[in-house]
């Protein structure tokens, strides 16, 4: 009788252990490790969202890896990370490759409006820049525009807006958005091209210091002259407004999709706004009381 009880107990313990192991391997959005690939231009907002998620879910551990946009997309396709942050529109061929390799429908999770901005030294007499100036400048051997590198989100996006291939543009390089700002004073005739999120945080001391070093040029179009403020980004009037979005290769509701959902909720969108970017999914509402 005792042997029968022992056997029954051992069997029950084995079943329980197997159940626990199975449960540990099941998808979970609130615990586990996640690596997110992001271009340096929008690293700050990605880090802020990751910090917020880890505060809400202490058993999650999110690592932010900085990688040029195109290379991050390739790593996502090759299953080297579960999320990549993107800004440019993918080509039809890239979308097809994504759906074939990842085996998911292409559904970008848009979460913020950012911008590519053109900056000059603070004492520069230049006040605005036109689309035609940008186009002709990027065709000139003078290479007066400074980007943070090839394969970068800033270069890709500007090229896309001008209906050009990045390889066809002529430009100078200083690696890193912050480095462009800090070194631009050495090149008074050059124009730096950086991501707004580099110094968009309104109450951050480091951002304030960077903003004080340069002048951001409004962009002139046929319709008018536009700055990269909230209203112009929200209405897409600033011509170099870009929408940031997440791509994932995760097919179930695990930590990657949990993070994406969090970033697009009101709490995540409030973090986006505190970063000085325009939230994509919530807008400021004004209510008149009578």
UniProtKB/TrEMBL annotation:
PBP domain: residues covered: 32-263
InterPro entries assigned to the protein according to its UniProt record, in alphabetical order: PBP_domain, Phosphate_ABC_transporter
Keywords of the record: Signal
Signal peptide start-end: none
Organism: Chryseobacterium angstadtii
Name under which the protein is recorded: Phosphate ABC transporter substrate-binding protein
Source organism superkingdom: Bacteria
């Amino acid at each position: 009788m005792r042997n029968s009880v022992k056997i029954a107990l051992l069997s029950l313990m084995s079943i329980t252990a197997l159940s626990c192991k199975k449960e540990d391997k099941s998808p979970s959005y609130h615990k586990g490790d996640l690596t997110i690939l992001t271009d340096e231009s929008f690293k700050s907002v990605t880090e802020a969202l990751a910090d917020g998620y880890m505060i809400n879910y202490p058993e999650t551990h999110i690592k932010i890896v900085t990688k040029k946009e195109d290379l991050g997309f390739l790593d996502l396709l090759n299953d080297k990370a579960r999320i990549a942050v993107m800004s440019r529109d993918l080509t039809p061929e890239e979308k097809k490759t994504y759906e074939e390799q990842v085996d998911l429908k292409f559904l970008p999770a848009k979460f913020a409006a950012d911008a590519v901005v053109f900056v000059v030294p603070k004492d520069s007499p230049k006040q605005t820049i036109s689309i035609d100036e940008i186009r002709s400048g990027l065709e000139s051997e003078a290479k007066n525009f400074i980007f943070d590198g090839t394969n970068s989100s800033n270069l890709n996006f500007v090229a896309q807006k001008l209906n050009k291939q990045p390889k066809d543009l002529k430009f100078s390089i200083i690696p890193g958005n912050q480095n462009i700002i800090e070194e631009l004073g050495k090149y008074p005739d050059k124009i730096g091209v950086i991501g707004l999120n580099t110094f968009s945080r309104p109450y951050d001391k480091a951002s304030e210091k960077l903003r004080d070093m340069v002048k951001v040029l409004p962009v002139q179009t046929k319709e008018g002259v536009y700055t990269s403020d909230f209203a112009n980004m929200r209405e897409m009037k600033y011509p170099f407004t870009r929408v940031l979005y997440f791509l994932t290769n995760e097919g179930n509701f695990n930590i990657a999709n949990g993070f994406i959902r969090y970033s697009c909720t009101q709490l995540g969108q409030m973090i986006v706004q505190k970063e000085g970017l325009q939230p994509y999914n919530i807008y400021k509402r004004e209510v008149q009381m009578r």
